[in-house]
Amino acid sequence: MRSLGLALVAGLVALALIVAVDAVSDKAGIYTATFLIGALIAVTFAEGRRRALSAGSASRLMEARLQGIIENVGEAVTVQDESGQMVFANHAAARMLGVASPEELLRTPLTSLLDRYVSTNADGSPLRVEQIPGRRLLAGEDDPEPLLVRAVDRETGEEHWRLTKATAIRDESGAVRNVINIIEDVTEVKRAELHAHLLSQASAALASSLDLDETFQRVAEMAVPGFADWCSVSLPGEYPLMNQVAVAHQDPAMLEFAERYRQRYPPRMDAPGAADVLETGQPMLVPEIGPELLATAARDEEHLELLLGLGMRSVIVVPMRAGGQTTGVITFVASESGRVFAERDLEVAMELGRRAGIAVENSRLYTQRAEVADSLQQGLLPPKLPDMPGWSAEAHYQAASEAAAVGGDFYDIFRIDRGWMLVVGDVAGRGPRAATLTAMARYTLRTAGILTGDARIALDALNNALRDRDQMSLCSACLVILTDDGGRASAEVTLAGHPPPFVVRSDRVEQVGEPGPLLGALEVDSWPTAGTTLEEGEQIVLYTDGVLDVPGGGDRFGEGRLGAALTASNRPDEAIAAVTSAVDAFRVGLRGDDMALLAVMRGRTAAAVRHDLPVGVEAARAARRVVREELAHVLNPAALEDARLLISEVVTNAIRHPARHGGVTMTISTGDDRIRFEVRDRGNGFRVPPAQSNPEEPGGRGLMLVDMLAARWGVDGHDGTCVWFELDRP
Amino acid sequence: MTQTGSEEFGVDVRPHGEGSAVVAPSGELDISTAPQLRAALRDLEPRPALLFIDLRGLTFLDTSGLQLILEERQRAEDDGRELRIVRGAPPLHRLFELAGLGAHLPFFDDIDPP
């Protein structure tokens, strides 16, 4: 019996040695170690107790050896008895818990051991004693999960991550006699993991959005509480103020406190810390914020008190840098966690700052370019089509998919002595140079056209202007003069390197025009003109190459498909909707080129009245008021209520998804048989929720109502810049 | 905050006997005025065991308001309180019917005396 026991012990010692020498690092290892050390201790203690009376020298020697092994393994090991009292600890445990020797550790009460550290769970919540696995075993749990704890030394501010695993030694009846705790220091692993996670999360957030303020807030929130207790992002504001664009802390009450503090003492560029970082672009690490430092930073007594009240212990300020410029700073503060930032934390913070800096720069460039592009493009197109008695007109311009590029397409309609001149043109190239050319082309044709009423003179003027430029500058154009001679309407088409427009008649679609030379290419002054008549209800449709060149299925959209799309259209708005939806259906891939379409019909379809709605939430109410004023005499009360409800829903959708420039336009067209409502974004377009969107969502429900109550409805264009619906007139 | 919206829109909040209250919005309830009603409902302390939302004073209601009423109903359900909605004029009530909610929300014709 005795010899069997000794053999078992010896085997276990051998195994334990292997494990201990291996300096257990992986998870499986620690479990094996727990088992073996647990077994050893169990045997040792059981044997020890039994043999305390018999005092055999061989077993004493064995016990001493075992003790020696356990005392010196790399893992921290402690043993508790059934009352929770610590009865054994090894050297590693003493070192880990910050006392000089195992003996001292056994003498120190648990509470004072715990008091040395600010201990929190991985999620940042304060650690409760009853969460400790040993306690849970003693409280009757079978196999508690290992516990990961962040312990920050109150004195040094050093941060430790510890993984504690507890195993029970039970007697024959199954009652817990001893609890063995093995505590592993996983600080390195955990920090590396946290840092990598923070950086990858932040990078993803920074790359995924162009709305910087929102992104900064997300990044700040990622940093707490794992990396810091506070995180804020500040950009230079109006001198000397800093503009704090994001702040995060785990506790909402603290955030409120910080907000009051910020209002009372707005952050300044000339305050120490942030100012230096902004100016020099060098990061700052203050491991221990002493009272003297706070006194220097404080603007007055009250400020000092507030600063003290925040309990800041350690701070890191890093620049957000890109292209040699410092665009802002990120501040990390450790306060109630009690930790002190170290050099390695600074490295992570700097990396975060660098990535944020690049995101700021990207966003700034994008915004700038998009704004320039928008304002240029707006100058290149007429803000609205003129009211043309005896004619109905509709235009469509679709920008290329790249937001920040200005296209070279333009269109225009203006009055001349004989009637109206329609213009559609296309300047070669993209970007700012094309934009200046486009502006010149549009205004030269317009000015010469209005003054002379002659298409050829207008083209000649533009040709000369283009020829005068140093660089070869090319432009194609289609000019159409509409005249109305005692009820007989006709169209004269003059082409300059431009595809001929379509005339849509009741029984056929045909192209009209003779090819003429491209503008800017040659010293010529003659462009052939072709004429045709337009009966009531017939349309002429002008377009740019962008429509024909849309790629799809190994082919381009082309004139054949354009003509086919126009065949069934009875009105200008239908013509444009038919073309854009045919193009969208045909297209493979992204929009490449921009495109312009202009459709004019002989006769009046509908009196379209356009209303610019106020910016913001008042738009819905304003829209309803206009609908009532305009349609009270046209619709019966029930239909009027439907119209008001639908316009309210559609406008609300539009302003719920505000475009950068805001503002919504409503157009009401009163036709003989129907009333058409269009809600259009004045800026970059707004999105409607996809058709299958959840009807419980307000936007989805709004569109569901539109679908139920409107005779027809749709979203015009690829990017959802216009939502329209129609009600049939009773 | 906004001039045109708040001039006509109002929310009347009054106690209605023991543990009961009436919240009666009037005017046009939409995206611009919904925050006022939402705030009035939120500020109602203590939460009455029986709450009436009286829609009879409304002249317009769209899904912004509908959403708010659904939220309040959910809140009442979560807290185990009773919510009664006093039906508005027929054109106004039509929205609930269209949304398929006419039979699913606790509609009443009037407020019972306390």
Task: Give the overall form of chain B.
Answer: globular
- Look at the helices and sheets of chain A and give the structural class: alpha+beta
Mean pLDDT of chain B: 88
- The helix/strand class of chain B is alpha/beta
Cα gyration radius of chain B (Å): 13 Å
Query: Element order, helices and strands of chain B?
Result: HEEHEEHEHE
Strand order across the largest sheet of chain A: 2-1-6-5-4-3
**Percent of sequence in beta strands of chain B:** 25-35%
CA(first)-CA(last) distance of chain A:
106 Å
Number of alpha- plus pi-helical segments of chain B: 4
**How much is the radius of gyration of chain A in Å?**
39 Å
**Poorly predicted sequence stretches spanning 5 or more consecutive residues of chain B:** 1-6
Poorly predicted runs of chain A are 1-33, 47-55, 684-698
So what's the oligomer here?
heterodimer
**Largest sheet geometry of chain B:** 6 strands, mixed
> Shape of chain A from CA axes?
elongated
The residue-averaged pLDDT of chain A reads 81
The beta-strand count of chain A equals 28
Overall description:
The complex is a heterodimer of chains A (730) and B (114). Chain A is α+β, with helices and mostly antiparallel strands. Helix content of chain A is 42%, strand content 26%. In chain A, the strands form six sheets. A six-stranded antiparallel beta sheet of chain A has the order 2-1-6-5-4-3. In chain A, strands 8-7-11-10-9 form a five-stranded antiparallel beta sheet. The longest helix of chain A has 38 residues, at 343-380. Chain A is elongated, with a radius of gyration of 39 Å. Helices cover 36% and strands 28% of the residues of chain B. Chain B contains four helices and six strands; from the N terminus they run αββαββαβαβ. In chain B, strands 1, 2, 3, 4, 5 and 6 form a six-stranded mixed beta sheet that branches. In chain B, α2 packs parallel to α3 (63-79). The longest helix of chain B has 17 residues, at 63-79. The A-B interface holds A 616-618, 620-622, 624, 637-638, 641, 644-645, 648-649, 652, 655-656, 698, 701-702, 704-705, 708-709 and B 2, 4-5, 28, 30-32, 60, 62-64, 66-67, 91, 94-95, 98-99.
